[in-house]
Amino acid sequence: MKDIKAISIDWEGTVVYSPKDEKPWPLDCISKLSILLQAIFKEEGIFSFINTGRQTPFVEAIFASKIIVPIKGCPSITENGSCLFYPITNTFKLNPLITEGKLKRFLFERVGLERLVQQLGGKMELGKNFMFSARPPENIKVVDFYSEIKKEIQALIDDKIVEITYSSSAVDVTIYGVNKITGINFWCDIMGIGKQHLSAIGDSAGDNSVLQEVTFPMAPANAADDTKAIVSQKGYISPYPICVGVIDAIGKIVHTAGLQKMCQDFIKEA
């Protein structure tokens, strides 16, 4: 895979367990992943970045704590494609698809979304400025919660006001035209790297649009069946879950013997 110049990495359900799993982050494995990503950039010039539905302050905390060491000049994608966040300068760029008019309409409709989620017994995720996310009630699957919300807001979807998808832990509603793949398009424009030079790893429906379009899609063992179906067509599904699966998958991209051995050693130590 010598043509890969950057790796898009989903966070929850991919590097760490989904919140619904109620498991601690595998910090030792994440530390190894961070070392690996820095080594890959140094030796092969391959960028890596987070591509998540989580809010920008969440990603800021990941980098500020040095859980993952940022690569200079490389932004991560937050709020499902809404923002590019630069962790070293602590600045962000808004996806140009988010116009003032679209944002104003979305914020107006957001009030109704909050009311709907309360009625359905879900929990709204706080701190998101350009999208809306909600977690299902206990004992309700995310996909079922997604179907219920989608049914209630179908008119907004049909009128191209919003888009809806879901991750392993939450239902995500974004401004129409804004999602992880348009976030990738924005990232590519800024970085001057085409999607034909991208790899990506993800675990759920919110990642599928990205996995369909990059050159080499990847997934950990715990990924959803529909995600695995997409990845299997031209990519790699790791036999390992979560962070170990990410390290294993990255080992299929690098081509220097030293980096391949680093991946193998980290997997053995996990």
Summarize the helices and strands and which ones pair or pack.
Elements: E1 6-9, H1 27-44, E2 47-50, H2 56-64, E3 76-78, E4 83-86, E5 91-94, H3 100-120, E6 123-124, E7 131-135, H4 142-152, H5 154-158, E8 162-166, E9 171-175, H6 180-191, E10 198-201, H7 205-213, E11 216-219, H8 225-234, E12 236-237, H9 242-250, H10 257-269
Describe this structure in words.
48% of the residues are buried. The longest helix is centred in the middle third of the chain and has 21 residues, at 100-120. The model has no long low-confidence stretch (mean pLDDT 96). The protein has two domains: 6-95 and 179-269, HAD superfamily/HAD-like (Rossmann fold), CATH 3.40.50; 100-175. Helix 1 packs parallel to helix 9 (242-250) and helix 9 (242-250) packs antiparallel against helix 10. The strands form three sheets. A five-stranded parallel sheet has the order 2-1-10-11-12, sandwiched between helices. The protein is built from ten helices and twelve strands. It is an alpha/beta fold and 270 residues long.
Essential attributes:
single chain; 270 residues; alpha/beta; Rossmann fold; 2 domains; five-stranded parallel sheet; 43% helix; globular
